[in-house]
Amino acid sequence: MPRVSYVNGKYLPHADAMVNVEDRGYQLADGVYEVIGIFNGHLIDKAAHFQRLQRSLKELCIELPVNIAALSFIIDETIRKNFLGHGKVYLQITRGVAPRDHAFPEKSKSTLVVTVSHMPWPSRSDAKQGYSVVTGPDLRWQRCDIKSISLLPNVLAKQIAVEAGADETWMVNSEGHITEGTASNAWIVTTNNELVTRQTDDHILAGITRRTILRLVEEQGVTIKERAFTVMEAQNAKEAFFTSSTALIKPVTLIDDIKIGSGSPGVMTCTLIDMYFNFMENLPKKNERSSYESKSNNL
Ligand code: PDD
Q1: pTM for the full model?
Q2: Does 147 participate in catalysis according to the annotation?
Q3: CA 42 to ligand 1 center in whole angstroms
């Protein structure tokens, strides 16, 4: 079955899905993106991803070339044309095609690309394996809250993990604080059972998985602290994990070769994995809105 992707109004065989060489995304990384998980054909946290996309676009003065309802339809169509059950959507919007010049072009139409790919989700028990993290310098700009396609520092940081045989790199800023992973948010559980993740500001991406987990634990009476933490605090933590739309919740059992807690995925992390699986398995059916979505926005 041929893979189908969407580019600027057309559903094309993936091999023919191309953008112009003068696209500003290609030449200047002048664009934004989103990655959304698909579980049983449904987008995980669609409304929150669309909200973040609209925010990123607004911050960079890039126009969404279609309205949100049309974007939602295009994604659903791309999923349908690819017969996708489990997987992920990648969508990218750039400032469009124009002769190369740093300044915004006077006239350009944003480029919209939507691709989907198959990705089996782990079973609950497979999700409870331990992963290793290494640390590396955070070389990024001052607006990491924008989900920009300019990812070179993240690419270089991830390569540190690859070369060390680790699963993710946690980036450390000049103050010695862990900001986040190359494509994930970082969390620890302290010896007092406090759940800690860095506060959202211009130095990290406000992860949608992060936001959902905070919402899920809020009702459980867990103490949540949104604050910065150092590498040493993480290494001395009881538990650690990282989260993203594609990684879900990954227990961390090693940070720079130091064992975390007992060296096995922790109790709170495994409980959160179960809670997150329950959440995914109870996603609203297509065209239904979860009570959370209805409460939080108009999408
Ligand atoms: N990345 N921080 C960074 C730097 C990220 O790139 C991501 C996600 C996250 C987690 O965000 P969310 O929970 O919304 O996926 C945090 C995606 C998955 C990627 O680039 O592939």
Answers
A1: 0.95
A2: yes
A3: 19
